Amino acid sequence: AELGLQVDRLRSENQKLRELLIELGLELPSADQGGAVRAAETLVSLMTEGGSLVREREELILEHARLTVAQQAAEDQDPDLEQLLQALLEVDALNAEREQLRMERGLQEQAEADELVDALSKLRPLLSETDVLRTERQRLVSERRSLAEVAQGAGVFAEEVLEDEDLELQLLNAVK
Questions:
Q1: What average pLDDT does this structure show over 89-97?
Q2: Domain contains 165
Q3: Nearest-CA neighbor of 159 among 169, 168, 170?
Q4: Which residues lie in coiled coils (predicted)?
Q5: Long-range Cβ contact pairs of 15-23 (< 8 A, separation 24 or more)
Q6: Residue 131 is assigned to a structural domain of this protein
């Protein structure tokens, strides 16, 4: 509630400063936005991409093993049964190692990643409202500083403008 009141007050004061600067014909500074929600969305995106890359790597290892077997078979017109058997054993060993890694690390990591993604998905709406207000407050404070600097550069002190309800009188005094 207090955060909302601060944002409303800052928004009102900044609007007064903006109007004054527009009347003076001065260029208004711009502001940037961001926040925890955007960071959470980026984290979820990176985690999803990382999981896809791990799966793609595993598939490439298996494809390499299959291509190696095919290449060895293509190079020998008379395939050496012992060599083919050895290559098949290597592929089986890679598959077994992959499954073991997946069981030890992959499933656990995938479960942890899924839990984290779920937690972040649930947390995002909770962060959203507070983050929007904090971001807005930060943006308004930054904008107020910029507006006050521009006004001060034109010979008008923002504190005087914000304390005086009659902006037009203040504007006329500033221009004279």
A1: 75
A2: no
A3: 170
A4: 84-111
A5: 16/161, 16/162, 16/167, 17/144, 17/147, 17/148, 17/151, 17/158, 17/161, 17/162, 18/147, 19/167, 20/151, 20/156, 20/161, 20/167, 20/170, 20/171, 20/174, 21/147, 21/150, 21/151, 21/154, 23/171
A6: yes
pLDDT digits (tens, 9 = 90+) for 127-146: 666 777 777 778 888 887 88
Q: Is residue 93 part of a domain?
A: yes
Domain that holds residue 7: 2-12+33-147
Domain count, the chain: 1
Residue 8 has pLDDT above 60, yes or no: yes
pLDDT 10s digits, 50-61: 777 877 887 887
pTM over cut 0.70: no
Query: Which positions ≥6 away from 99 have C-beta within 8 Å?
Result: none
Instruction: Check the CA dihedral 75-80-85-90 and report its sign.
Output: negative
pLDDT band, very low/low/confident/very high, at 165 (cuts 50, 70, 90): very low
Helix (H, G, I), strand (E, B) or coil at 165: coil
Are 17 and 161 a contacting pair, CB within 8 Å?
A: yes
Residue 22 placed within a domain: no
